[in-house]
Write a structure and sequence with these properties.
The chain has 205 residues and is mainly alpha-helical. It has a 3-stranded parallel beta sheet, sandwiched between helices. Strand 2, helix 4 and strand 3 form a beta-alpha-beta unit. The protein is elongated.
């Protein structure tokens, strides 16, 4: 989404105490030291590319550490992409919006976020994408990490001291949570997961 498109979308900010600052990408955000300025709401607009998905994971994880009080919002290309990133993130989001929604719906959601900012005492998972799993478990994350390194199910079972049937069960649970139907889709998720800062991965399984 272009800077002009974002400004048109955020026309709902007029008449509110909010000011819109637009950044080209996460590199622009950090180079301009924007993370040192407190923000009420930060919205990351992710593109369809692999690199953009990776950067969204990295940026939102760092944002949670640098500005824990900021409302974190993901503006995904569609619900599938939003669900994937939402479940891969080690930190919760306050909302996931989808560009595939109508402009009017997006404006209403943004306006609701601004109105509710003061009452958001803890992150909730989504506005427009279903959630119920609470993200991937440590075991599911570990399996994705091993798959991303090229290990087979039997090899992962040996590494994790589990039987192959248990590993397959966790694998299919991860696929259901992420909304992917093939191993290729799961490997794509594993690739994104590997872009997380090492300290955010948590301990084993």
């Amino acid at each position: 989404m272009t800077k002009l498109g974002l400004r048109q979308l955020f026309s709902c900010c007029s008449g509110t105490p909010y000011q819109l600052d637009a950044f080209k990408d996460s590199g622009d955000w950090f180079s301009r030291r924007a993370h040192r300025r407190p923000y009420d709401i930060v919205i990351y607009s992710v593109a369809v590319t692999r690199q953009s998905r990776q950067h969204s994971i990295y940026f939102l994880t760092h944002l949670a550490r640098k500005q824990p009080d900021a409302v974190r919002v993901l503006l995904a290309d569609d619900e599938g992409q939003g669900k994937l990133i939402h479940h891969l993130l080690p930190i919760p989001l306050h909302a996931v919006l989808c560009k595939s929604s109508s402009v009017e719906k997006l404006r209403l959601q943004l306006n609701a976020l601004m109105q509710q900012k003061e009452s958001l005492s803890r992150p909730y998972k989504t506005l427009s994408c279903r959630s119920g799993s609470g993200g991937l478990s440590p075991t599911e994350r570990a399996i994705l990490d091993y798959m991303g390194k090229g290990l087979s199910i039997p090899e992962i079972a040996v590494q994790m001291a589990r039987n192959a049937k248990t590993i397959r069960t966790h694998k299919f649970n991860a696929m259901n949570k992420l909304g992917v139907r093939t191993d290729t889709g799961l490997l794509c998720a594993a690739d994104v997961l590997r872009y997380l800062p090492p300290e955010s991965m948590g301990a084993g399984c």
